[in-house]
Amino acid sequence: MKVTIVGPGKVGMILAYTLVMRGSAREIVLIGNNRRKAEGEAMDLMHAQAFMKIPVKVRAGDLEDAANSEVIAICASVPMAHDFGDRNSLAVGNAEMMKRILPVLAQSSPNAKLLMVSNPVDVLSYQAEKLTGFPPERVMGTGTLVDSMRFRELLSSAVSIHAGDVRAYIFGEHGEHQFAAMSVAQAGGEKLDDTPERRALCDVAKAAGIEVFRKKGNTCYAIGQSASYVIESILLDQKRTIPLSVAIDGYLGVKDVYLSIPVVIGKAGIERKLQPQLSELEIEQFHLAAKSVRSVIDSIM
Ligand SMILES: NC(=O)c1ccc[n+]([C@@H]2O[C@H](COP(=O)([O-])OP(=O)(O)OC[C@H]3O[C@@H](n4cnc5c(N)ncnc54)[C@H](O)[C@@H]3O)[C@@H](O)[C@H]2O)c1
After folding, report:
1. Annotated active-site residue in 47, 162, 174, 287
2. What CATH fold (topology level) applies to the domain 2-141?
């Protein structure tokens, strides 16, 4: 149960901390472009894990120390401007970085599951599949998991049901072209009707990531929790249903792009892509999301 986290910044370290607190991994390797800082982070986490029931070994390393990882999470990024507002603005810089990192990691961990967190996550997940040569079942991005959880948290207050029991999914792009699949949203087996108020909550959830960034300079807790949830489902073979950015190969007539849909995630990676029946409007929104992500892919590849 070895997990490598590349990019021990705000997101990478909340992910590492959550994995340690939950006791999901036995070994965590932190790889950054500042070895001294990564060593400090690893030491600090080792001291924290001493409180936990389940021991975890955390260490800093270089790319070769990732060898034989079961899961590799990519949280490395070029810096984001203070007035950051468009995830696609990171595409060129991060795509160049991935060209240097991913082939090396793929060679030394040929059986790893690769979880992309860095933005623009749909574009980088697509590129990651090409750079690693991994089968698409083992390449995924956190996609709209964090957006879905933001939406569920808002819906939860509106319908007075625990967020964990609200089954509502955001589909499409982790960005402007995301949408709530209200036609399949439900809680306790009861359909959550598609009302203008609920659609407005989807817009609030969509804007929330950038709003948090503008207020505190980063977003880290919800995304760190999201990434650890995916990794735990892989390590423990939980087979959870999670909306993730995955290779779309014909769903609703869309191909050759990464977008978020609900999938079953376990030891083998993406074990099943769920194909809910969407409404006409949602299908149209899915196609728009595909067009948007595809245009950024074309600009970097
Ligand atoms: N998918 C999502 O929902 C989501 C949510 C929040 C943030 N993000 C993305 O996650 C990424 C990280 O965000 P952050 O706030 O942690 O940024 P950050 O600046 O705090 O961390 C970036 C890390 O990448 C490291 N890094 C840079 N170049 C590297 C290289 N060549 N090799 C290894 N490490 C390198 C840096 O040292 C730093 O530790 C960004 O792209 C951000 O947009 C995604």
Report:
1. 174
2. Rossmann fold (3.40.50)
